[in-house]
């Protein structure tokens, strides 16, 4: 994971959607984007609860 990296809402959403694709490997998606799996799952939970707007209140790091 890249320390101090700030992710835009669109970047978070695209990473979450990539991980939700059928057959997606979360470990691989996270590694490719430099995101910790725990952060990915926080983003996914926020996205499922509130869509794109839900990601605005979730920390980027």
Automatic annotation (TrEMBL):
Q: GO biological process: what's one of them? A: DNA transposition
Source organism, top-level taxon: Bacteria
Q: Name one Pfam family in it.
A: HTH_Tnp_1
For this UniProt entry, the molecular function terms from Gene Ontology, in alphabetical order, are: sequence-specific DNA binding; transposase activity
> What name is this protein filed under?
Transposase
């Amino acid at each position: 994971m890249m320390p101090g990296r700030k992710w835009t809402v669109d970047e978070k959403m695209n990473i979450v959607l990539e991980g939700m694709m059928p057959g997606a490997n979360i470990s691989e998606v996270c590694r490719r984007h430099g995101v910790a799996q725990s952060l990915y799952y926080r983003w996914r939970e926020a996205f499922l609860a509130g869509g794109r707007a839900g990601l605005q209140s979730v920390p980027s790091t």
